[in-house]
Write a structure and sequence with these properties.
The complex is a heterodimer of chains A (about 375) and B (about 325). Chain A is mainly alpha-helical and about 375 residues long. Chain A contains 14 helices and 4 strands. The chains are: A mainly alpha (about 375), B alpha/beta (about 325). Chains A and B meet through helix 1 and helix 8 of A and helix 2 and helix 3 of B.
């Protein structure tokens, strides 16, 4: 194996890369666009959900309940309450999508409060949108908890006049947040960085590799004394350099957009480079193994979307892996994206240092070695 | 050092089969050091497969080929160091400049930077591309790219050069330029050159010896002149007479070496083994019989005739047959 031949292939690829700014731009613009659009689309708190309130009880109790409800929703402005006179009108509007849920205080509400006979409030929801539903439900549960605290379970209909016992018999859950609140865009950033490396691998390792092959350019190199190991190593290293460059650029631009704290911490940047380097080698070798026997230039273009979906989404970049069904978890286990995203999150969100990334680096490196060996084995030096 | 092998290439019963299709069928020939050897045949005759086997790009099904004294299967690396190859497709990188294309190749052959600095400008000059040294190859014409590829194939000073259809797709001016370059190379560097072509004139003009390939087989091999001589009655004498007497054509048929006489657009076409001999006899006969000769011309044997004689088909027909075979799936 001669280093000069490997470096000649790297040199060729890098010169070509810098000559085609379109490739550089497309490998960066797509992940950045996704970061910004998805980050802001999903990241924000849900606000201004319209809720229909139907009070048929019309007593002091129900007015009290309405006031509490309005007080709860007024703070975070999650909901906007509209008063309706009839349930049927409210349900028509719910079906039509003018309101997202109906809160119904029935006629016998105050009587049941007085009797201590499980007073009921109905909550009718449009459950076609899980995000909105779960947000409203949380508020409704807060409301019910709030009302229950004010009611005396021992003397129905009576407000508590004596203070609660000094020792509270109920179990209280104390929540300790390890890190400051993380906006969704920060959560998403790791996936976007991995995505930029993937796109470079896809374009450099997939599309241009097959294009050069089908244009006959490879034949010109195959008649020289280069061995297939040298050729593949050259192509993988050049791909990895491109991936590292794209990944670093997105880390910095994306980090500024998402507002990552202390972005310029040199130790963390150093670890980021290690993660990006290993990720690049893993992604490009993965792409080579897929493309090593392909000669139709349409194939990499056709499977681009499939690969993107199959690798990006199961990686935990946009939704935690713990929420996946078993089969999808298996995809995430063999997906190099998963380890890249895990390591990048550890560094960018928690600044864990080496302890948080070494297992990912080991897995990605092992993965790369296996893939390079397989690529060399499957590559046909002959035509 | 061993005494130089007089044969640059030795091919023995070389065969390549793709599934049921036999692309090259037990072909044997030798190419002597320093000659230009042509493989002539229609598209699809097996020329490219043959050249790919000799240049280690395609493994042979059976048989043996030695190039520059190295076996193409057991010592492929030795072969690759000894040869320069200009494949049929344009293989120079359009996104790189002429110099960069040369440089990458020079590095792949292990040339030092001093050697590169000396050789690359020299070679680019020899193919007339000095002023385009730092231009992107993507802006080159087909002829310029071909010339660059020839220069690139010479960067490691190979002993043997393979050119697969070097002028296909080039305009007449570029073709002539490439021909001149090939002749110059042979004279200046003492290169052995093996080229394939489906142009008769190209083979005739350039090659010391020609092998005619058809359906994967070698049907004839000799110098262009000897190949032409081997074809009987292939000279055509065309003559016009002012006052031919009755039965004149039949009289002409009795001349020495004449195979047939036919009327053709007011002129008479005489097929003969020797054009000059027939002309002399024809002139003598006309003077004796008082027939005035208005015009006489001799058309010598062409390689087209040679191809027709050995394969039973015109090269053009053979080519269109191949096209039909290649496109047959479209008509199903």
């Amino acid at each position: 194996m001669k280093l000069q031949r490997i470096s000649a292939i790297i040199e060729r690829d890098m010169r070509k890369f810098f000559r085609s700014p379109a490739l550089m731009m497309s490998s960066m613009i797509f992940p950045l666009m996704q970061l910004i659009v998805l980050g802001y689309a999903f990241g924000g708190k849900i606000k201004g959900i319209k809720i229909a309130l139907v009070d048929q009880d019309r007593t002091a109790y129900s007015r009290d309940l309405r006031e509490r409800f309005e007080a709860i929703v007024a703070g975070p402005q999650t909901m906007q309450v509209e008063n309706y006179n009839s349930v049927s009108d409210a349900i028509v509007d719910l079906r039509a999508g003018f309101v997202r849920a109906v809160v119904y205080i029935p006629v016998d509400y105050s009587r049941r409060v007085d009797q201590g006979n499980r007073p009921r409030i109905a909550f009718i929801e449009d459950n076609t949108d899980n995000f909105v539903t779960s947000e409203i439900l949380t508020r409704m549960q807060d409301l019910v908890k709030d009302i229950n605290q004010g009611l005396n379970p021992f003397q129905p209909g009576q407000r508590l006049t004596v203070p609660l016992p000094r020792l509270n018999p109920l179990v209280d859950l104390q929540v300790v947040e390890l890190y400051p609140y993380i906006e969704y865009i920060k959560y998403l950033l790791s996936g976007s960085i991995a995505m930029s490396v993937f796109i470079v691998a896809m374009i450099g390792g997939g599309i241009t590799f097959i294009d050069d092959k089908s244009r006959g350019l490879h034949e010109g190199y195959l008649v020289t004394p280069i061995t297939k190991t040298e050729l593949i190593l050259g192509l993988i290293f050049s791909g990895a350099i491109k991936g590292l460059m794209a990944g670093t650029t997105i880390t910095i631009i994306g980090g500024l957009i998402a507002g990552i704290d202390r972005l310029w911490d040199p130790v963390r940047l150093f670890y980021l480079m290690i993660v990006l380097g290993t990720t690049s080698v893993a992604m490009i070798s993965f792409m080579f193994l897929l493309m090593v026997r392909v000669s139709d230039p349409l194939v990499p273009r056709a499977i681009f979307g499939v690969l993107n979906t199959l690798l990006y989404f199961p990686s935990g970049a946009i939704y935690p892996v713990e929420g996946f069904p078993v089969w999808l978890r298996w995809i995430s286990y063999i997906d190099p994206f998963t380890y890249a995203v895990h390591a990048l999150k550890a560094l960018l969100l928690k600044n864990t240092g080496f302890s948080g990334i070494y297992s990912d680096i080991l897995i990605l490196s092992g993965f790369s070695i296996v893939l390079v060996i397989l690529s060399v084995a499957f590559f046909k030096r002959q035509i | 050092m061993n005494a130089p092998n007089p044969n640059a290439i030795e091919v023995t019963k070389l065969k390549k089969q793709f599934g049921d299709f036999v692309a090259v069928n037990e072909v044997s020939f030798t190419v002597q050091t320093g000659e230009i050897f042509g493989l002539l045949g229609p598209n699809g005759a097996g020329k490219t497969t043959l050249i790919r086997m000799m240049t280690t790009l395609t493994p042979p099904t059976s048989g043996k080929a030695e190039v520059g004294g190295h076996d193409v299967v057991t010592d492929a690396d030795g072969v690759r160091h000894a040869i320069g190859v200009i494949p049929q497709a344009l293989t120079s990188d359009p996104e790189l400049t002429a110099r960069e294309n040369m440089m990458i190749h020079a590095k792949l052959y292990g040339l030092t930077s001093a050697q590169r600095a000396q050789l690359i400008p020299q070679l680019l000059e020899s193919v007339g591309l000095t002023e385009f040294t730092d231009k992107l190859v993507g802006s080159f014409s087909g002829g310029m790219r071909r010339r660059l590829e020839i220069a690139r194939g010479l960067v490691h000073s190979p002993k043997i050069m393979f050119l697969d259809e070097p002028t296909t797709g080039l305009d007449p001016v570029s073709r002539t330029a490439v021909w001149e370059m090939i002749t110059k190379l042979k004279e200046a560097a003492g290169l052995t050159i093996l080229l394939t072509t489906h142009y008769m004139d190209e083979a005739d003009k350039l090659c010391d010896r020609i092998a005619i390939v058809d359906h994967g087989q070698l049907v004839a091999l000799d110098t262009p002149a000897k190949l032409k001589d081997s074809v009987p009655a292939a000279d055509i004498v065309e003559a016009e007479f002012e006052n031919p007497p009755a039965g004149w054509n039949a009289t002409l048929e009795k001349l020495n070496g004449v195979a047939s006489v036919a009327d053709h657009d007011g002129a008479i076409h005489i097929s003969t083994t020797s054009g000059p001999l027939t002309v002399r006899e024809l002139m003598d006969l006309s003077r004796d019989r008082g027939v005035n000769v208005r015009r006489v011309s001799v058309q010598g044997t062409t390689l087209d005739d040679v191809f027709l004689y050995y394969t039973g088909r015109q090269l053009r027909d053979a080519a269109s047959e191949t096209v039909k075979r290649d496109m047959s799936h479209l008509y199903k």
